[in-house]
Amino acid sequence: MAALRARGDTVRAFVRERSRSVVLELGAEAVPGDVTDPETWTRAAAGVDGIVHAAAIVLEPASLDTFRAVNVRGTELALAAAARALVPLVHVSSVAVYGRDAAFAEGQGRVGEDFPFQPIPDYDFYARSKREAELLARRVAEERGLSVVAIRPNVLFGERDRHFSPRVARVLRRGLLPCLGPGDNRLSCVYAGNVATAILAALDRPRPGFRAFNTTNDSELTQREFFDAFAAALGARPIPVRVPVALARLAIDTFAAARTWWSPRLYPGAARSTISFLIGENPYRSDRARAELGWRPAVAPHEAIARTAGWLHKTKGPG
To answer: Rounded to two decimals, what is the model's pTM?
Structure first.
């Protein structure tokens, strides 16, 4: 939204009521409502030139039916709105569609957009619903001749991130700098502002049918370099703590089993996926986005981290 406003576009945002003030501060029109409500979609999409669909449940403790209601049904309604308005749709997907652990098992830079989808564990409701939503987007685009692009980022950080960035800040401000294994693996994350540039490029290059793009490579920071830079940007001086990978896996498996026993609605696979993310080399590549969209990440990694830390400080993020 901020990227669209920065280049002078008029923006209408379909948001939850509690986010109305944020949208207005960014200079956009707010249409509060539920992403699963067809009538609100009709109002929100009236007269637009393009649609960016980014609404999703990510880490919430919810049932598979709830994930599907938002992530799949919401995408279905976004596609219907794009078809009515005859405008391109950019669907913000995720690299989770590949199968998370399977992708990391491939090794650095081995997973492009043609990498075959791998089995997803039953408990990974997010990945299952995002894959289902993307397959729906592909089918509708091809059947109806719509221009639909799926943007597949890996772990996002940046301003207004409510998941990864606040958790990193919370740990660092508590005085700990954990390092799993040697810490020299390239972390599989991307700055949200750089993903936004790919979204704009996709909107500006509509084409009939479906096309997917990884947006997963805007830096080469290692695990240790990323968290060191984040701590410095926060003004924190955490104590480095080395954690053997085997010990981390044992702790995660024990914790996940306990959570599943007393609250099966919670997502036990999230912790295991976090281990793969923290110790694995970034398996994704973004050659297609660079070649076909002209994607060039505009914000360098240390500047992206500084902006994120600045936003956390301004908004009194996790302390």
So the answer is: 0.92
